[in-house]
Amino acid sequence: MLTRVRITKYTHSCVRLEHDGGATLIIDPGVWSEPEALTGADAVLVTHEHNDHVDLLRLKGLGVPVYAPKSARLPGLDFTGVVPGEEFTAAGFRVTAQGGQHARIYGGLPDCANLGYLVENSVYHPGDSLCPPDRPVETLLVPLQGSWMKTDEAIDLVRAVQPERAYGIHDGQINERGLGSLNGWLADACGDCYRWLPPGSSAR
Hints:
By secondary structure, the chain is an alpha/beta fold. Helices cover 15% and strands 30% of the residues.
């Protein structure tokens, strides 16, 4: 399990995981996330090809290993393709890829690969999916809003997983009133495990 890992939330779906020993892993640094999220990164995980989860221009010049779904369309970006069920090491973190497909929006679209990443069997980031991890986790990163989801689905995910702690992500299109409402629903329905981290704030 992860020990003494710092989780820092950035705008929308981007999170930064840091070991006390110095290794840094970034998940989903999209075009809406702050550039400083990538400072000192040792590796990057991309859940899927949409630009709110991957900023191609930044990653092309970063010079660190990038892992993404094998079928992802990421023009000009050198990355290691990953498939569901694959286990690998990124920046010294043990990672298992889960899920496989982006949640459906309308008419079967978008039809692109989406991987959830389980890091050290402890922290789970589902990307644009509400697919639960295949084992218990300590920390769940739960999407709050998207054209592909409803609020009750976020609540159901937290209740199904029953993590020790859950932090809201995928919130970049919500205004303050909407964010307050969603956080209230999650806190009321999921109990003390749920918390929202403002961009730039951290937790362990």
